[in-house]
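__Protein archive entry__

___
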Amino acid sequence: MFRRIVQSLIVIAVTTAILASTGPAWAAPPEPSPTARLSAIIANIQGWIVGMLVGVATLFVTYGGARRMSSNGDPTEIEKANSIIRNGLIGYALAFLAPILLALVQGWIKV
């Protein structure tokens, strides 16, 4: 009788140890939907476009400033430099508005 109790306790202890050492069974993560992947692609493209717009706008403003400094007071050169700087500022405005415009378009196409 004592032997059966010891055997039962050993079986219970081994079973408990095996069950306690295993982790929970997790399901594989679901595949992202095609619209989620499209949203990620659009977000990446948006980042690139904004970065390029800011870079080009910075080049325009820098070139316009250098041209204005080297104009030596010539009114036509100052006007050309101001035009270049204005174009650079328009580029900054487009870079600032690009995410807003993209959000509007995504709302229209329901992405």
